[in-house]
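Quick one, probably user error.
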């Protein structure tokens, strides 16, 4: 008979809870409400739950393996399942939920607009996924969608893929070794592959910007190639920080390389700039602590 309507930000932060039942009248669980509740393994929602929104990092670093999304939920914030490394089973109670669905027992999908016919956003991937085939109708992969997917081996995009973008930290700290970026994607977002297991990557010609920290700490990344007729304009701060690359050719189209972009690439020995380069200057920190000889 609880009249509780909100569970506040960090309300149970670092508690030793193992199980909790959310009262039916709760409509909102705020940011980091159960953050660092490492022993929390079970969250139960009432069948009459009025919950409509789960904010970012609510269950971050909890031990939940399963969660049920009540039928009235209309908002899952982009990082609501962030840090849930064991979350492998998701139930969306209403099969007619106009905002979210669980697809092929692998992905939570959402609509970019509630009037859309298709669920065009890949919101979350179960954390034990090994091989991911991205449906062709997906236009966006959400921030953190594959975060810490430690068993991820392959990601396949179909030939008719409509993917246009992926969010920050989309593949952060995953075990992904390589990826072919679809032709409609023009930006590699900040932290997209940070700390992942990538070994090599080809940057397609249509990519215009590589965001900050995009490949930072990809310690196995030893080969980066830019496709012919590259349209790349900028390489963000710390984009390739602490990778294992040995050689790189910077496309002529690049006009900006930000601070620390190749810092701590200790194996990097040679760098080439294509003829008629648009690059006028860059800071000394860009190649700090590399093996490039002046």
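Nope, works fine. Designed sequence:
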């Amino acid at each position: 008979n609880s009249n509780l309507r909100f569970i506040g930000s960090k309300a149970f932060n670092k508690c030793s809870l193992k199980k909790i039942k959310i009262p039916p009248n709760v409509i909102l669980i705020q940011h980091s409400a159960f953050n660092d509740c490492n022993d929390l393994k079970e969250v139960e929602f009432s069948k009459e739950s009025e919950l409509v929104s789960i904010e970012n990092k609510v269950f971050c670093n909890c031990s939940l393996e399963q969660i049920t999304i009540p039928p009235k939920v209309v908002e899952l914030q982009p990082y609501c399942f962030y840090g849930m490394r064991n979350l492998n089973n998701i139930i969306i109670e209403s099969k007619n939920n106009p905002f979210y669905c669980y697809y092929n027992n692998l992905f939570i999908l959402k609509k970019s607009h509630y009037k859309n016919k298709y669920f065009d956003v890949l919101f979350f991937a179960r954390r034990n996924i090994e091989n991911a085939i991205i449906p062709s109708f997906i236009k966006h992969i959400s921030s953190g969608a594959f975060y810490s997917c430690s068993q991820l081996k392959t990601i396949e995009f179909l030939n008719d893929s409509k993917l246009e973008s992926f969010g920050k930290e989309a593949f952060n700290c995953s075990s992904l070794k390589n990826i072919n970026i679809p032709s409609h994607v023009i930006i590699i977002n900040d932290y997209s592959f940070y700390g992942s297991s990538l070994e090599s990557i080809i940057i397609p010609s249509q990519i215009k910007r590589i965001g900050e920290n995009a490949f930072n700490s990809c310690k196995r990344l030893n080969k980066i190639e830019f496709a012919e007729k590259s349209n790349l304009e900028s390489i963000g701060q710390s984009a390739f920080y602490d990778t294992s690359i040995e050689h790189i050719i910077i496309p002529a189209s690049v006009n900006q390389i930000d601070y620390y972009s190749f810092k701590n690439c200790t194996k990097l020995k040679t760098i080439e700039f294509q003829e008629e380069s648009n690059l006028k200057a860059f800071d000394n920190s860009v190649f700090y602590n590399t093996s490039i000889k002046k």
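The mean pLDDT is 95.
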